[in-house]
Specification:
It is a single chain. A hairpin with a 2-residue loop joins strand 6 and strand 7. The protein has a four-stranded antiparallel sheet, with no helix packed on it. The protein has a three-stranded antiparallel sheet with strand order 5-7-6, with no helix packed on it. The longest helix has 19 residues. It is elongated. Helices cover 46% and strands 12% of the residues. By secondary structure, the chain is an alpha+beta fold. Helix 2 packs across helix 3, helix 6 runs antiparallel to helix 7 and helix 6 crosses helix 9. The chain has three domains: 87 residues, Alpha-Beta Plaits (2-Layer Sandwich), CATH 3.30.70; 63 residues; 88 residues.
Length: 261
C-alpha cells in the first residue's frame, strides 16, 4: 500500500462522511485534517487506475507531485480502495523511509535487466526499499533475505515474470552456440555454423536467459553472437582479416558457454 502521512488541523468532517452529500474539500484550509498517500513508486498505469477509481467513487482529492491528498473524513474509504487496487494491480512497492535503519547494496556492475528482476523480487517479498542510482537501500532487518535474492539472481535461479519477462530462448540454445563456435574456431567459413548463428541472433532476448545462466553472462553471449554474425554478413572484401576476427570471437564465445553445456 502507499506510504501514508496525516497532517492534522483542528477539525474533521466525520458528520459529512456518512451523509451521502458531496464533501467540500479545500486543501488549503489549515483547519482540515488531510491524509497524504505517497505513490511515488507507482507507475503511470497504476496511478491512472487510482485516479479513475477516485473519480468513480466521487471522492474529493488533489494531487501534490507524487502524493495523493484527501480529507481525513474519507480516509477509511480511500484505504479500502487502495486495498482493492493492490489485489487487482499489486503488490505495490513499500517505500523505505529516509531515516529507517537500512543496508545498502551497490549494484553498478549489474545490468538493467538484473536490477529489474531484483526490484520485482523486492516488491513481491514486501521488502521496504528505495533506489539511489544503481544502489538499492533495503530495510536493515531484511539484509539476509536480500542477500539470498542477490545470490539467486546471479545464479540464474530467479528470472523476470509477467509481461516484461522476455521471450524464452530456443531449446538447447547454448549447445547450438557451442557447436557452431567450435566449428568456426576451426573453420571461419563453415557455412552450417554461420547459418546456425545467423538463425539465432534475432531471437535471443537479454531479459530471458536459459535456465542456469545469469543475466550478465547471457548478455555477453548475445553480444558475442551478434559480433560474429555482423562479421560473417559483412562484405567479403577484407576476407582474410574478417576470418581472423571470426576465429578469435568464436574461440572466446566457445570458452564462455563451455561450462554450461
Amino acid at each position: 500500500m502507499a506510504f501514508v502521512n496525516k497532517q492534522s488541523g483542528d477539525r474533521a468532517e466525520n458528520d459529512v462522511a456518512g451523509s451521502g452529500q458531496p464533501i467540500d474539500f479545500d486543501p488549503n484550509d489549515p483547519d482540515v485534517v488531510k491524509v497524504h498517500y505517497d505513490v511515488s513508486v507507482w507507475n503511470f498505469d497504476q496511478r491512472a487506475e487510482l485516479s479513475e477509481a477516485l473519480a468513480d467513487a466521487d471522492l474529493p482529492h488533489v494531487w501534490e507531485d507524487d502524493e495523493l491528498v484527501v480529507p481525513e473524513v474519507v480516509e477509511d474509504r480511500v484505504d479500502t480502495m487502495f486495498e482493492q487496487l493492490e489485489q487487482a494491480l499489486g503488490p505495490f512497492p513499500i517505500v523505505l523511509g529516509a531515516d529507517a535503519p537500512s543496508t545498502e547494496f551497490g549494484l553498478d556492475e549489474w545490468s538493467d535487466s538484473d536490477r529489474s528482476v531484483l526490484t520485482e523480487a523486492l516488491v513481491s517479498s514486501e521488502v521496504p526499499h528505495r533506489w539511489e542510482g544503481t544502489t538499492v537501500v533495503v530495510a536493515e532487518d531484511a539484509e539476509h533475505a536480500v542477500d539470498d535474492l542477490l545470490d539467486a539472481i546471479e545464479a540464474g535461479e530467479l528470472l523476470a515474470t509477467g509481461a516484461d519477462a522476455g521471450t524464452p530462448p530456443p531449446d538447447g540454445v547454448l549447445s547450438t552456440i557451442f557447436v557452431a563456435t567450435d566449428r568456426l574456431a576451426k573453420d571461419p567459413l563453415d557455412a552450417s555454423a554461420r547459418k546456425d548463428l545467423i538463425g539465432l541472433v534475432g531471437g535471443l532476448d537479454p531479459k530471458h536467459p536459459p535456465y542456469g545462466l545469469a543475466h550478465r553472462p547471457w548478455a555477453s553471449v548475445i553480444d558475442s553472437v551478434g559480433g560474429i554474425v555482423a562479421l560473417v554478413l559483412d562484405d567479403a572484401s577484407a576476407a582474410t582479416d574478417s576470418d581472423s576476427e571470426v576465429i578469435g570471437l568464436a574461440q572466446d564465445l566457445r570458452s564462455l558457454v563451455r561450462p554450461y553445456v
